[in-house]
Hints:
Layout: E1 5-17, E2 23-29, E3 33-39, E4 58-66, E5 69-79, H1 82-85, H2 88-104, H3 112-127, H4 132-146, E6 167-170, E7 175-178, E8 188-190, H5 193-204, H6 217-235, H7 240-248
Helix pairs in contact: 2-3, 2-4, 2-7, 3-4, 4-5, 4-6, 5-6
The protein binds zinc ion.
Amino acid sequence: MPAFKKVTAGLVLRETDTKEADKILTVLTPDLGKIAVIARGARRKSSKIAAASQLLVYSEMTIYQRGDWYFMDESSTIALFDGVRQDVEKLSLASYFAELVEAVICEDQPSPQTLSLLLNALYALSRQQRAPELVKAAFEMRLMALSGFAPMTEHCALCGREEPEEPMLDVVQGVLHCRKCPLPGGLSLPLTRDSLAALRYVLYCEPKKLYAFTLGKESLRQLNHVSEAFIASQLERSFRTLDFYKSIKIET
Ligand SMILES: [Zn+2]
């Protein structure tokens, strides 16, 4: 029997089938950060750890370490997020959230705030009170800020105006400016006044109020466009799960 068992909460960011009936899971925990966990026999129907070994399931896990790996011993499900799981559009968006978190988070770095941000996003999607596109943009920008990529949105980077006329965000340099105050070398996208206000809100509001705002259709579309371009530019990569989400998203 392994000597050092540990109980932790964990959310599965990725599941990969491996030999026999096993899975390798990428799990986000509050104290251990992102860890790789082997779930032995998790693909068998009779397995007691089958439920906890699925993508986007949040559980209390008993794990133990052997060499470089953690192994899951027991589990007790905390949240399955059925509202997300039963809707292909929401499930694809949530899968993108998981891939994005995996991309920005470092191995073995405690990350309780990131876990809490992702859990709240999943609850917000499940409860159906907020438009998925609103949850998406708010989650994306807040996660980037939490991961050290916050854009400077207080004032125009050139003239210093707090409320730029025709505001634009340079997604490469991560700064706000007026259309009339061009910055060399970047890639700037327009924001409406409302989408700028929403951007500032999601960067600085209390974590629990992250989705407590409304935005008109055009401003919301623009905010999503800016947040996607900002992520692509800052992380220098694209996301397969985002491409899939956009291919099946129902236009409203
Ligand atoms: Zn300016």
